[in-house]
Structures are given as C-alpha cells and as structure tokens.
Design goal:
Blueprint: H1 2-23, H2 28-46, H3 70-78, H4 80-85, H5 88-106, H6 108-119, H7 125-135, H8 142-157, H9 162-175, H10 186-198, H11 213-242, H12 260-284, H13 304-307, H14 309-328, H15 334-346, H16 349-368, H17 370-385, H18 389-403, H19 410-426, H20 432-445, H21 456-464, H22 472-500
Helix pairs in contact: 1-22, 2-16, 5-8, 5-14, 5-15, 7-8, 7-9, 7-11, 8-9, 8-21, 9-11, 9-22, 10-19, 11-22, 12-14, 17-18, 17-19, 18-20, 19-20, 20-22
GO molecular function: secondary active p-aminobenzoyl-glutamate transmembrane transporter activity
InterPro entries: AbgT
Keywords: Membrane, Transmembrane, Transmembrane helix
Length: 515
Amino acid sequence: MKQSTNKNSLLDRFLNSIERAGNKLPDPAVLFLILMLLTWLFSALLSPIDFNELDPRTGEKLYIQNLLTGERIAAFLSRMIPTFINFPPLGVVLLAMLGVGVAEYSGFINAGLKYLLGFTPKSLLTPILVLVAIVSHTAADAGYVLVIPLGGVIFYAAGRHPLAGIAATFAGVSGGFSANFIPSAIDPLLQSFTQSAAQILDPGIQLNPLNNIFFTGLSSLVVIGVAWYLTDRVIEPRLLRTNPVDENLTDVPRMDELGPKEKKGFKLASLVLVLGLLGLVAWAYPLDSSLRAPDGEITSFAAPLMQSIVPLIFLVFWIPGILYGFVAGTYTSSGDVIASMSKAMGSMAQYIVMAFFCALFIDAFSQSNIGSMTALKGAAFLQSLQLPSQVTVVGIVFLSAFVNLLVGSASAKWALISPIFVPMLMQLGISPDLTQAAYRVGDSVSNIITPLLPYFPLVVIFCQRYVKNTGIGTLVSLMLPYTMYLLVIWTAFLLIYWTLGIPLGLQSSYEYTGF
C-alpha cells in the first residue's frame, strides 16, 4: 500500500508540474496570438535558407515562406474574415450546439442520462463511454461537440468527477481516432494518398479503401482497455485529490426521479427520434439515393449524407428537445426555445474568441511551410538510419506522433509524408498497408496533448464548466498519460499483430514483393 501511495505521489508531482507550467501560459486566445507572431518571425528568419527538400506534392523545392513581406501581410489582412468564417470547427461547433442547447435546457438530455444510468452498471460506465466515443468517428467531428461534453455530464450525474468523463471521451474520440470497427470517410481518404504514394514506385498497384479495417477494429479494444484503466485507476483518483469540482454548479443534470410528464415527454421524443433515424436509413439505403455519392458510396466525403452530419445532429437534438420541452412543461412558448438556443450560444462566447486567433495562427503556420519542412526533415532522417524493418515501423509511429503536434490534419499530413514513407518502406519489402497502419497509430495518440488541435480550446471550455481554473496545462496533464500509454501499448499491439500475421484489412498484406 505504501508503495502504491509513493507511485501516486510521484505521478502526481510529475503531472502537477506539467499542469502548473501549462497553466502559467497566457489565456489560450492570447497564446494563439503569440504563436502566430512567432510563426511570422521564424518564417522571416528561415526563409533565406535552402533546406534542399522537394515538396512531394509538386516536385518543386520547398522553402519557408516569409510572412512579413508587404505582399503577405496584405494577403493576411484581406483573408482575415474568410480565414475566420471558414475555420472548419467553428460552424460545426456552433450549429451542433444550437441543437444540443435546446435538448439540454429542455431537459431531454437530462432525462436520457437518467435512463442510461439506470441500467448501466457504474463499473462499466467508462468503457461504454469510450466505446461511444470511438463509434462517433463515423460521424466526422461529431464526437468533439457532442460526446466529449456528454462524458462530463454523465460522470457528474453518476457522482463521479466530470473531468474524468471528459478525459475518457476525449481519449476515445481523438486519442483513438484511428480505432474504429465501423468504416468511415477517413478510410478511403487516407487510402487514396497511400495508393498515390505507392504508385510512385509501382504504377500498377491498387489498394483496398478498407485495407486497415481489421486492425483499426481490433485497436478499439486496445483503446478501450487503456482508457478504462487510466481513467478509473489514475486520472480520476488524481482529480479527486488535486482538482475538486466547483461548488454550487448550475445547469448540470441531477439524478432526481423523473415525473410522469417527463417520462411521457421522453418516450414521445425518443419515438420521434427513432422514427426519424429509420426514415433517414430508408432514404439512404437505395443505391441511387440522393444521399449517396455519384458512385453510390455512402461513406465517402463526396456523399451528401457525410456532408450533412452536423445539420443532422442539429435536427436530432433540436426536434426531440422541443417536443420533450412542451410535453414535460419546461417550454411554454416558442420564446423558451429561442432562449435556450441563445443561452447555448452565450456559453460559446469564449470559444468563438479563441477560434478567431486559433484560425489565424493555423492558417499562418500552414502558409509558412514550417510544419511541412519539419515533417520532411524528420522523414529523411529516419530513412538515413537504415534500421531493421520492425524498428523502422516503430520509428514511423513515433515520428508521426511528433509531426502531429505541428500539423494537425490527418489527411494533410499524410499527403505530405506518404510519398516519402510509402516508397521508402516498399523498398524494404514492407507493404503500403502496413505503413499506413503505422502512420494511423502515431497520428492518433498525440492529438490529445497538442493545443494545435482545432478542438483543443473547446475541450478546455467544457472542463471549465466544472472546474473554473482549468487551463491548457490542466488538460495536457490529464491527457498525457493516455498519450504515453497508447503510444507504447498500441505500437506493441501493431508489432504483435504483424508477428501473428493477422490481416490488416480487406485485400491487405504485410510484405511488398513487387520487385
């Protein structure tokens, strides 16, 4: 027992030091402003240097772009509004929160949570939440704006620390981004870049869009197991010692018994929700459905269904929320509905400010090519080491995890480095399928500790609902154990998977023998 206490004390001191250091950073909005100014400065200092790297996307030399020229500054000012308005998470978050706000303030979500907690054993709450978080990948970015805040609400309603629920779901949504047993749009997207990169060496090679689906499916069990253990044994006990929940919280669901009107409202709203989802399935099922892509695919980014995920989330919560509110008596007029939506937007004010500076920084960082140059230099260094195949694959996992701290988009990053990684490993006899699987592991595990993740500031806001002094350092210290454990265990799982020869996916292989 004393040894366990000492271990907890050592871990607490380590994570507390990270939390204190991180929380000494400026407000996230100010931090993004400072990072943007530093990007400008370093872009000017590095732009004269010839790094002798070719951009694999164009075949031309890659240079750091000086953002402090008159032309670049004029372009920055002229694009400021579209850069902010077109910041991908902004519209996703605000539209989804309009619907979620109605469902929350009417009491519909509260009622649903009470039913869920009524038949879910408290001991299984964590793995079930992580499983839901993993499945949410299928709906693009829905997990960030829907599942993560619900993780906090569910844990709080169950008498557990809400930040532990947020951490567990964040680990499932983002840390386990490549763990899913349900095909999603990211599968064919990454495969398309992998195939293009492989055709540099073998023009006739063809890869299946689901070439990693077996591996990502079984990886779900790894992510659930790691997140379950860490949340219940490490994260929540530490939170109870160091980050108590603020007293006198308002607008957070309680575990009171549902009254007759509330039960009636929930059953009626749930029935409408189920009928609506069944209608959506019936609409999307035919091969010539207008919700499908022109080629008949339902999970491709070109499919109107995939492009409509966020509006559908809005309707899924908005319509049942309104119906529940009027039946249960929490709404008496249309003004109450609008008031709920306004209240939801009010809670997003701080996020909108952060999103403005975050959008400007990410745009500047992308324009500067600093992240791209870092990725290319890292890949070239790994190639120069000429390590054994297994060590090289592990190196790709770790390098991808590091580059992910600088270049957030999974597709943009893979478009940049796949023309280096894939042909390089093909020459070592390693298939593109395995290279892509290694990349997906590294790309996932470090999402949850980088403030450059567009949704990272939003998760901070979710945490501040329960612990007002939550900062970037608090969230990083919460998520760092998940990153460390997932990086080691998931990489080991990939190596064991490879050793056992279990298929990675459809029409996949481990070896490349095309020479």
